[in-house]
Amino acid sequence: MPIVLAGVLAGAVLLYVVLAIMVIVRRGAWLQGTRLTVRALRERTVDLAAARSVALHQSNQRLIGPVRRTGVIGPAQMVTVLAVTAGDGGQVQLRLASRDAIQLPPEQLFALAGALSFARCPGAAETVAWLRGMATSASVG
């Protein structure tokens, strides 16, 4: 019985490690016109121009890798997340920061604001203004 339990536990740990690696390696996002695609374990796409709602919120993001010099995993960082609800009710969430909690470059924020400027839904205008403001302040300073 202890051997079976150890085998099941080892299998669960292995599955967790494989899923964690898949999320880290496969994670990405891209913009094609007004269509935003975000990929984690699965791929989700939303047409920003046809979005039903758009919102920004803060989320804790734990640094996933060791800090370069100390070798210690860093504390959770607050990052801004763009949440877009599609016309079919599905939601796509995009972190506006890298895995190291560094804000996206101004060019990417401007591109996202440009694509989102076609949306006529609650929260779109405010989000576009926020994205453009962050991009401008990052490119100036």
Helices and strands, with pairings:
Elements: H1 2-26, E1 28-32, E2 35-39, E3 43-47, E4 53-62, E5 76-85, E6 91-95, H2 106-116, H3 124-140
Antiparallel strand pairs: 1-2, 2-3, 4-5, 5-6
Question: What would the keywords be for this entry?
Answer:
single chain; 141 residues; alpha+beta; three-stranded antiparallel sheet; elongated
Describe the overall structure.
By secondary structure, the protein is an alpha+beta fold. It has one domain. It is 38% helix and 28% strand. It has helices at residues 2-26, 106-116, 124-140; strands spanning 28-32, 35-39, 43-47, 53-62, 76-85, 91-95. Helix 2 runs antiparallel to helix 3. The longest helix has 25 residues, at 2-26. The model has no long low-confidence stretch (mean pLDDT 83).
Backbone CA Rg = 19 Å
Count structural domains: 1
What is the count of β-strands?
A: 6
Fraction of residues in H or I helices: 25-40%
Give the distance, in angstroms, between the N- and C-terminal Cα atoms: 63 Å
Mind describing the biggest β-sheet?
3 strands, antiparallel
Q: Topology as H/E string?
A: HEEEEEEHH
Number of helices: 3
* Strand content range: 25-35%
SSE class: alpha+beta
Q: In what order do the strands lie side by side in the largest sheet?
A: 1-2-3
Low-confidence spans = none
Mean pLDDT: 83
Shape: elongated
